[in-house]
Amino acid sequence: GTAFYEIRSLDSGFFHGLHSLIPQAHSSLPVSSVCSDELTHNFKGFTVMNENERYDAVQHCRYVDEVVRNAPWTLTPEFLAEHRIDFVAHDDIPYSSAGSDDVYKHIKEAGMFAPTQRTEGISTSDIITRIVRDYDVYARRNLQRGYTAKELNVSFINEKKYHLQERVDKVKKRVKDVEEKSKEFVQKVEEKSIDLIQKWEEKSREFIGNFLEMFGPEGALKHMLKEGKGRMLQAISPKQSPSSSPTHDRSPSPSFRWPFSTKTPPSSPANRSRNESAVTYDISEDEED
């Protein structure tokens, strides 16, 4: 039959560096070694997470097959043989610690070292630097979330300072919100004012045109006044009869007789002849009777 030989590589580190080393060594069977709190505090520094939390965090990494807990700070041949390690994965930069210029020197000389690429920005020192740099921000953040000043190891004066800064920031935020809303309001007013001005200009042109059409030099009002004046003059002035019209003679006024008198008033020569004829006519009628 065919014999299979499994290659076991050890990702050496105490916690943070393993997250970048493990994926690079996943072609073999990654075995991750994690040091205890005691060794890490002595040779590296104080940790944020305790050893049990670090063990569990590495165990849940998808490329990790096995976690060696409480691993030694310097990997001895006995430790490698006990855990059947074929290669040790770590970045190639010499790691000086525990009185040695490079704790992986003997592994490199034995041909068991598998160099990996170091990921910039992922290290314990970088993470601590971020926390220290923004310490006030994180302290205020946790105070807002209900942590006490004693739990955060914050003095009474700093606690009051953080609360004051928080209030000042809230006021600044409100002022900023008001400024933004004011800008939006002013922008809307400007847009509406532009529309109103345009409409006013259109209406004013229309009004001026109508005014000129009514009251201008040749406007409708002038024609109306001319027509009214002509009609008034025509109604007031009498009509003159034409000179060529025929003249009519006046009919003679009737004669007037005095009652109970046979005398007639003096008359004009023209009427006298008429009267004579009338008398003659009357006498003739008496004769006939």
From TrEMBL:
The keyword Cytoplasm does not apply. It holds the Pfam family CTP_transf_like. Pathway: Lipid metabolism; Phospholipid metabolism; phosphatidylcholine biosynthesis; phosphatidylcholine from phosphocholine: step 1/2. The keyword Lipoprotein does not apply. Residues 252-261 have a biased composition (Low complexity). Gene3D superfamilies: HUPs. Keywords: Coiled coil, Lipid biosynthesis, Lipid metabolism, Nucleotidyltransferase, Phospholipid biosynthesis, Phospholipid metabolism, Transferase. Residues 32-130 form the Cytidyltransferase-like domain. InterPro entries: Cyt_trans-like (IPR004821), Pcy1-like (IPR045049), Rossmann-like_a/b/a_fold (IPR014729). GO terms for molecular function: choline-phosphate cytidylyltransferase activity; phosphatidylcholine binding. Residues 235-289 are annotated as: Disordered. Residues 161-188 form a coiled coil. Catalyzes the key rate-limiting step in the CDP-choline pathway for phosphatidylcholine biosynthesis. Belongs to the cytidylyltransferase family. This is choline-phosphate cytidylyltransferase. It comes from Accipiter nisus.
